[in-house]
Design a protein that fits this description.
Blueprint: E1 4-8, H1 15-28, E2 33-37, E3 40-43, E4 46-54, E5 60-65, E6 72-73, E7 76-78, H2 80-91, E8 99-105, H3 113-124, E9 129-133, H4 138-141, E10 146-149, H5 155-169, H6 192-200, H7 206-247
Parallel strand pairs: 1-9, 1-10, 2-8, 8-9
Antiparallel strand pairs: 2-4, 3-4, 4-5, 5-7, 6-7
Helix pairs in contact: 1-5, 2-3
């Protein structure tokens, strides 16, 4: 079952500060923490907007500003592209982290449909999520996990409770890929019968072939000589018989 923890509370109750502390504490225990926090942007002590900061890399972008271009939420305008560039990558790499922290699930962040879709996948995953949750969305997301209301008198207890719960879940064990066994080599031994056949099929060396041909040729010469002699005798005999006939013998 997914393990999702939602921290809600009044504005300026310390939700962002608490999430930053939890992230640092879990990292100190060797857990891989992904996600983002949204610290305030201040000018001369007055809040003028919000940043979005990647917890793992420290990279910062603009979430919203009074002078930015984008959808308006209260007096701020949301820079959707800047927000998505920082917030989406860690949510899409769940296998890289033991826990995801999101600050926050609120009206500014949900102006991004891509963020909403990525968040749904996180909520359904086996990777624990700790998120600050705007009061307007408790009914929508609270049923997907445990909702914790943050107050001045329980801040430290909530911090310790969430750290202990995530530590108990522990570090993800990466699945080792099974090693591929090498295919067995085919036998190269030649059977005896096949060996004899192979021996018989071996070509005769050129020199031996020439000698053999010459021997056959020499053996045929006496036979031809005898045939020639018999032919000549036959001719002589024929001539003698012919003379005898002429002379009347």
């Amino acid at each position: 079952m997914p393990l999702n923890f939602f921290i809600t509370g009044m504005p300026k109750s310390g939700k962002t500060t608490l999430l930053a502390r939890i992230a640092a504490e879990l990292k100190s225990h060797g857990l891989r923490v992904g996600g983002f926090i949204s610290p305030e942007e201040k000018t001369h002590g007055t809040r003028t907007g919000f940043y979005v900061q990647d917890i793992d890399s420290g990279e910062i972008g603009l979430l919203a500003d009074v002078n930015a271009n984008g959808p308006r939420v209260s007096k701020y305008h949301v820079d959707i592209k800047s927000f998505e560039d920082i917030a989406l990558p860690p949510l899409r790499r769940l296998d890289d982290y033991d826990v995801i922290i999101v600050d926050e699930i609120g009206r500014m962040e949900l102006k991004s449909q891509k963020f909403s879709d990525a968040l749904d996948r996180v909520l359904e995953s086996s990777t624990p999520l700790i998120a600050s949750l705007h009061g307007d969305f408790v009914d929508r997301y609270g049923q997907s996990g445990e909702v914790i209301f943050l107050e001045d008198n329980n801040r430290e207890a909530v911090f310790r409770d969430l750290v202990d719960k995530v530590k108990a879940i522990g570090r993800k064990q990466k699945k080792a890929k099974p090693e591929k066994k090498p295919a067995p080599k085919k036998a190269t031994k030649t059977p005896k019968a096949a060996g004899k056949k192979a021996m018989a099929a071996k070509p005769v060396p050129k020199k031996k072939a020439v000698r053999k041909a010459e021997a056959v040729k020499m053996a045929k010469k006496p036979e031809k000589k005898k045939e020639k002699e018999a032919e000549e005798k036959g001719k002589e005999k024929g001539v003698v018989e012919h003379l005898k006939d002429l002379l009347g013998f």
